[in-house]
Amino acid sequence: MRRRLFGSVRARATLGATLVVAVALLAAGASVLLALRSNLTDQASSEAESSARKVAVSIATGTAPAALELPDGDDTPVQVVDGDGRLLAASEDLERISGTGSSAVRPVTPPVDDDGGDDDGGDDGGSDRHGGKGKGKGKGKGGDDDSYAYGEIADDAEGGKGSATVDGETRDHRFAALEVKNTRQGDLTVYAGASLSAEQSAVGTALTVMLTGFPVLLGVVGAVTWLVTRRALRPVEGIRSEMSAITASQDLARRVPEPATHDEVARLARTTNETLAALETSVERQRRFVADASHELRSPIASLRTQLEVGAAHPELLDVEGAVADTVRLQELAAGLLLLARLDAGERPGEARVDLATLSGEELSQRPAGRVAVRTHLRPVEVAGSRSQLARVVGNLLDNAQRHARSRVDIAVRAEGPWAVVEVGDDGGGVPEAERERIFERFVRLDDARARDDGGAGLGLAIARDVAVRHGGALTVRSSPAGGALFELRLPVAPAP
Fold first, then answer.
1. Residue 374: pLDDT above 60?
2. How far apart are the first and last CA of the chain?
3. What is the distance between the alpha carbons of residues 336 and 329, in angstroms, rounded to a whole number?
4. Which of 189, 229, 328, 395 is 20 to 30 A from 117 in CA distance terms?
5. Domain contains 213
6. Which runs of consecutive H residues, i.e. helices, occur in 154-262?
7. Is residue 358 situated within a structural domain?
8. 65 Cβ partners below 8 Å, 6+ apart?
9. Crossing angle of helices 197-249/9-60, nearest 10°?
10. Is pLDDT at 133 greater than 50 in this prediction?
11. What is the DSSP letter of 168?
12. 369: enclosing H helix or E strand
C-alpha cells in the first residue's frame, strides 16, 4: 500500500512541494527569529548605555555616588564601582546581580575626606585630595573651593549580558559598563542594565506563532498541491483508462480523450491518438496485405494444380508452357512477399558501393529486345546500399515502363548535387494525378492493368518505394515529356572512399 501511494506522481509532487515549503519556512523562520533577537538585543544595549551615560554625567559633574538619583532596579539596575571593586552606589531593592564588575548589591561607606566641605584656605594651585590626579577645577578661582572635580567619561561603553533579581523576580539584562576617570573618588565604572524581557517575550511569541502556523501552512500547501495535481493529472487517468480499454477490446479505431488545454497532457493525448491512428493504419495494411497475398497466391496455385491434374489424366493435353508461366509467376510473387516481409522487419540495406549506371546497364542486358525501343543516357554515380535490392528497384521500373509504353522507354542516370537520380519514362497513357500515390500501395493495379491481366500482382512499385525509403531516398512519379509516366528515383550519393 505504501509503495503504491508513493509510487504515484500526485503523492510525489505533494511530498516534494511540502518538503520544499517546509525547508523554505524553516529558513525564513530562523532568519526572522535571529533578526528579531539581534534587533531587540541591540535596542536593549542602547538603552543600557544611555542609562549608564546619564549616571556617568551626574558623577562627572560632581555628584557624589551616595547622592546619585538612580533609576528603578526593576527596569534598569545600576551599580557604581570604584577601581578597587567596591560598590559605591546601587539601585534600590536590588537583591542579586551577575554579569557586572561586582556581585555586591549593598554599597559600602566611602572613606571620610579630612578636608571635605568648604575649604577657606585650600591647596595652592587648586589641586584635589588625590595628589593632583583630578584634572577639573574647583568652583572658585585660584582653588578657593575644590569640594568636587570634573571627571572624564569614556567615549565607548563595554557591553555584556547578565541577570538581576529585584523584589524576588529575576530577569536577564543587557549591561553597559561606562568608565568615569579622575573623579574625587578616583576612577569609577558605571554599570547599567536594560531588561531583555521584551526581547524574550517577542522571540517566544514569534516562535509560538511559527510552531503553530507552520504545520497548518504545510497542511494547506499539501492539500492544495494534492488537489491541483489531481485535477492536472485527471486527463492522464482518462488516457490510461481508455488505453487499457483499447488493449482489452483490440479496437484500434477508438481514441483517447484530448483535453481542451494546450499543455503537456494535451500534447500527450494528441501524440497518443496519432500513434493509435498509425497503428490502426499499419494493422489494416497488414490485414489487407495478407488478404491480397492469399488472393494473389490462390490464382497461380489453382491454375497450376488444374493443369497438372489435367496432364496427369490426359498427358496429351498438358500445357507445359502455361504451367511454367504460372510457376514463374508464383516464384516472383513469393520472392516479392519475402522481400516485403524483410523490409517490414527493418532489414538494413547494407553499405556496399553500387554504380547505378552499371546496374541499369546490367538490368537492360538481361531483358530481350521487345516491342518497344529503349533509349539510355547513363552517367556513372555511386550510392551505398544493397545491390540486389537496388537491382530489384531498377528492374521493377523497367518492367513497368515496358509494360505500359507504346513505342519507347527512356532511362537516364545522373548526379544532382548530393543526389543520384534514376529516371525511367515511357510514352504510354501515363498515371492520372489522383492515382499517383495509390499506385505505390501494395497489390494496387489500375483498371487498365487489370483489364490486360499481364501477370503483375501490384507489388513492384510498392517494393521499389519501400527500398528507396530504406536507402534514405524517395520514389515519385509525374508526367514524362513523351506523354506517359516518368518515375524518378533519388538516392544519396555515396561519400568519397
1. yes
2. 62
3. 11
4. 189
5. no
6. 197-249
7. yes
8. 59, 80, 88, 89, 107, 110, 185, 188
9. 170
10. no
11. T
12. none
Q: How many domains does the chain divide into?
A: 3
- Alpha-carbon 58 to chain mean position: 69
353-370 residue pLDDT tens:
999 999 999 999 888 777
Q: Are residues 353 and 327 in the same domain?
A: no
The number of residues in the chain equals 497
Whole-angstrom distance, CA of residue 414 vs CA of residue 51:
104
- What angle (nearest 5°) sits at the alpha carbon of residue 471, between those of residues 469 and 475? 40
Q: How far, in Å, are 70, 95, 100, 165 from residue 168 at the CA level?
A: 20, 7, 19, 6
Q: What is the pLDDT of residues 38-97, one digit of tens each?
A: 888 888 889 888 888 888 888 888 888 877 878 776 678 888 988 888 888 888 888 888
CA 240/CA 83 separation, integer angstroms: 87
Residues 6+ apart with CB under 8 A from 144: 122, 138
CB 47 within 8 A of CB 194: yes
Select the highest-mean-pLDDT range: 28-32, 105-109, 247-251, 324-328.
Answer: 28-32
Q: In angstroms, rounded to a whole number, what is the distance separating the alpha carbons of residues 85 and 447?
A: 125
Residue type, 434: A
Supply 441's cell numbers. Answer: 500501395
Q: Per the domain annotation, does 433 fall within a domain?
A: yes
The answer to whether residues 352 and 480 belong to one domain is yes
Contact 85, 101 (CB under 8 A): yes
* Nearest Cα to Cα of residue 268 among 228, 236, 230, 229: 236
Q: Is the pLDDT of residue 376 over 70?
A: yes
